[in-house]
Amino acid sequence: MGATDFGRVFGVMVSMNSLNDRVIYTQYVRQKRMVLYELRLKTVMNQGIHIPIITASGFKELTKLFLGVPFQLC
Questions:
Q1: Using CA of residue 9, residue 11, residue 56, residue 38, what is the dihedral sign?
Q2: What is the pTM of this model?
Q3: Closest to 14 (Cα-Cα) out of 51, 44, 35
Q4: What pLDDT shows up at residue 20?
Q5: Which residues touch 53 (CB under 8 Å, ≥6 apart)?
Q6: Phi, psi (rounded to 5 degrees) for 64
């Protein structure tokens, strides 16, 4: 999962399935916030998608939200 900011008022958060390179979640945001990451992961999980590992370039706090999911910080 990743997020990119375009200036201070616009960004996009994207989650991809690494097995088939399909985008499974996209959200446009004003800023990256922990609650948005949590919402994204819960939405994906509620669709029945199993998340074997979370790879992210930041937000170490995610490790506290999903204790059963391994976390890799890039």
A1: positive
A2: 0.69
A3: 44
A4: 87
A5: 69, 70, 71, 72
A6: -80, -25
